[in-house]
């Protein structure tokens, strides 16, 4: 089963997203903000995909989470969700392989399908 790190500060969205991702075959590790996600990434032996919101309380945002995930697991697919895409595109352009930007609002079933397709081509470290 693929391990997905879900980073979302809104608890209801996180709860529903977790259910959708689990129904899609993922083992979900949750973080409620970027700071917690970075701590979790430091403790995980692998992660198959990262799905993160951008704007969250705390010191680190979703782009910081994506950067940290890639420093630990260089080829891990990253999906970044935001309602402020214009401001984020420039920060994501340095990622190779590319981070996938998903604009809010999004449908969770489509996000889960995207996560499945991206993680299917990824080999765990």
From TrEMBL:
Domain Response regulatory: 3-119
Alphabetized InterPro entries for the sequence: Bact_response_regulator (IPR050595), CheY-like_superfamily (IPR011006), Sig_transdc_resp-reg_receiver (IPR001789)
Annotated SUPFAM superfamilies: CheY-like
Protein species of origin: Teichococcus wenyumeiae
Secreted found in the keyword field: no
Protein name as annotated: Response regulator
Cross-referenced PROSITE patterns: RESPONSE_REGULATORY (PS50110)
GO biological process per UniProt: phosphorelay signal transduction system
Residues modified as 4-aspartylphosphate: 53
Entry keyword annotation includes Ligase: no
